[in-house]
Design a protein that fits this description.
The chain has one domain (3-88). The protein is mostly helical and 89 residues long. 88% of the residues lie in helices and 0% in strands. The chain crosses the membrane at residues 17-38, 50-73. InterPro entries: Bac_export_3 (IPR002191). This is Flagellar biosynthesis pathway, component FliQ. Belongs to the FliQ/MopD/SpaQ family.
Length: 89
């Protein structure tokens, strides 16, 4: 297997990870930032306050974006498995 093919596969895998994890991580980042600002403004220094809103947002993003991300992932895996015969020969 050539190094260009391996690099292409690694690039596609990293891109897929970013596409799948991006919406969840960005939503949690925004919620964490908002809660951090509110905690700083109200002088509430409890670290467990941010857990429940982040959990709710995580579940919401997974429910809303889940079908799309699952479709993207299954398409990627089908393409990857279809390329296996060409990679080993």
């Amino acid at each position: 297997m050539e190094s260009g093919v391996v690099l292409d596969l690694v690039y596609q895998a990293l891109r897929m990870v970013a596409v799948l994890a991006g919406p969840i991580l960005m939503a949690l980042l925004v919620v964490g930032l908002i809660i951090g600002i509110l905690q700083a403004a109200t002088s509430v220094n409890e670290s467990t306050v941010a857990f429940i809103p982040k959990l709710i947002v995580f579940a919401g993003v997974v429910i809303v974006a889940g079908p799309v991300t699952l479709s993207l992932f299954t398409d990627y895996m089908r393409e990857l498995f279809a390329r296996i015969p060409g990679l080993v020969s």
